[in-house]
Amino acid sequence: MNDLKDLLRISDFRRLWMAQAISYFGDSLTLFGLLFLVQRLTGNAASVAGILIAMSLPMLVVGLGAGVWVDRLNRKRVMIWSDILRALLVPIFLIVQSADQVWMIYIVAFLIASVSSFFAPARTALVPKVVGMEKLMAANSISESSRVLFGVLGTATAGILVGLFDGFSVVFTIDALTFVISALLVARLSVSGRAEATGEVADKPSARHEFAAGMRVIRRSRLLMGMLVGASITMFGLGAVNAVLVPFVVGELALKETWFGLLEASQATSMILAGALAAVLATRLKPTTVIPIGLGVVGVVAGLFAGLTSVWQLGALLFVMGWFVTPLQASFATVVQTETPPEMLGRTGAALNAALTGSNVASMAIAGAFATVIGVRSVFVAAGVIVVISAVVTALMFRGAPSTSVQPEPQLEMV
Questions:
Q1: C-beta of residue 85 within 8 angstroms of C-beta of residue 49
Q2: CA pair distance 228, 230, nearest whole angstrom
Q3: pLDDT in tens, 335-393
Q4: Quick check: 230 and 295 in contact, CB under 8 A?
Q5: Tell me, what DSSP letter sits at residue 376?
Q6: Are 301 and 370 in contact (CB under 8 A)?
Q7: Rounded Cα distance, 61 and 94, in Å
Q8: Nearest to 115 by CA among 166, 145, 81
Q9: What are phi and psi of 255, to 5 degrees?
Q10: In this structure, are residues 240 and 381 in contact, taking their beta carbons and an 8 Å threshold?
């Protein structure tokens, strides 16, 4: 609590945090607004999956290079222009009124996500300059909590506006306004947004070379390689769950979109509470033990989605899953941070993110197509089996691998 008070006394941090929180709210609002809109217009799981694919692809095709460019440009200006461009793009969704116009949603969603790929690393680069290195861990913790909280609020708001009032126009108008507010807040930052060492930045290698360098580090570590393989298989399963969840709730269970706020809150609550569990596990179990166990449980829970008949059952399973998601994220982060040389963390992280995004996109594309043939319940079963397989594969690849060289407890506090 003292850390939060100290940080909020810093005017630049308050503005940056508010800009980020508003952006999280708007991002979640629009994402679920689009998912609900496409489900209403098409009733097709493949079409709904297309939204998630369109918003994930930029992370793969743009994200690797975005970080390099952000290091060459003024970070404040990057954030401001990112907000302005997104504020101009979002209202285009208001034009879409029928199923034969859904292609416009895919294009605009891809463009918005591409612009967002520049906003996030620019903000990350500004935080240390605003709070200083000694308060960085606390600032990151507040940022993660805000992401979960305002993401839930955005989902709940989208569900209420769409489920009760068919308010798609209100959803997209509010989102456009959140970007305007965010841009105004960033513009008021007093800290300089310029890169610290322009001479060095100008000589930075291309995104392709950054990716290759990160992959070389991963290949030299059995733990990192095991994590990459296991996480890629996991995302190939969980991407399918994400792709068919809206068609399942709205189509199969015949529920109003309003329920998504409760469903998001049920998982977010356990994820936040599980932060304490992650700290306890760090003192008793190695990350290489937590990861296979956590993946196994998540896989079983995902498979159980296939037998659900009510929203309460789904909420309960999401609550259970959330207890394992946070320790998994903490353990994955710890393996990366302790197995990777400090000077290679950025490139290794970029390589991992690119690989996982590719697996996620492939999963959503396949799930969307198969759901129309075998049904969404069968997709849940297949996804659960895939994630359980990832648990087994990860356990086998971790077996006999050398222990991480740094104690994980301090790293877990950052997740």
A1: no
A2: 6
A3: 887 888 876 776 787 778 788 889 999 999 999 999 989 999 999 999 999 999 999 99
A4: yes
A5: H
A6: no
A7: 27
A8: 81
A9: -105, 155
A10: no
Q: Which two tokens stand for residue 293?
A: 């166990």
Report the C-alpha gap between 101 and 226 in whole angstroms: 43
Encoded amino acid at 55, one letter: M
HSE (CB half, 13 Å, CA atoms) of 40? Answer: 18
Please state, as a whole number, how many other Cβ atoms lie within 10 Å of the Cβ of residue 304.
Answer: 18
Cα→Cα distances 57→51, 93, 116, Å: 10, 19, 12
Q: Which two tokens stand for residue 141?
A: 């913790």
Q: What angle do CA 127, 111, 99 make, to 5 degrees?
A: 135
Alpha helices in 62-165 (DSSP H): 63-70, 75-89, 102-131, 136-165
Block residue for tokens 């400090």: 342
Rounded to whole angstroms, how far apart are CA atoms 414 and 32? 28
pLDDT digits (tens, 9 = 90+) for 67-121: 667 777 888 899 999 999 999 999 999 999 999 999 999 999 999 999 988 888 8
Q: How many CB atoms lie within 10 A of CB 49?
A: 30
The CA-based dihedral angle spanning residues 294, 296, 301, 306, taken in that order and rounded to the nearest 10 degrees: 150
Domains and CATH numbers, the chain: 1-191 (1.20.1250.20), 205-415 (1.20.1250.20)
- Distance of alpha carbon 115 from alpha carbon 108, whole angstroms: 11
Q: Cβ distance 186 to 83 under 8 Å?
A: yes
Q: Whose structure tokens read 């907000």?
A: 83
Neighbouring C-beta atoms of residue 88, cutoff 10 Å: 14
Q: What does the pLDDT look like over 122-180, one tens digit per residue?
A: 887 788 888 876 776 677 767 777 888 898 899 999 999 998 888 899 999 999 999 99
- The whole-angstrom separation of Cα 329 and Cα 290 is 10
Chain position carrying tokens 């993660």: 144
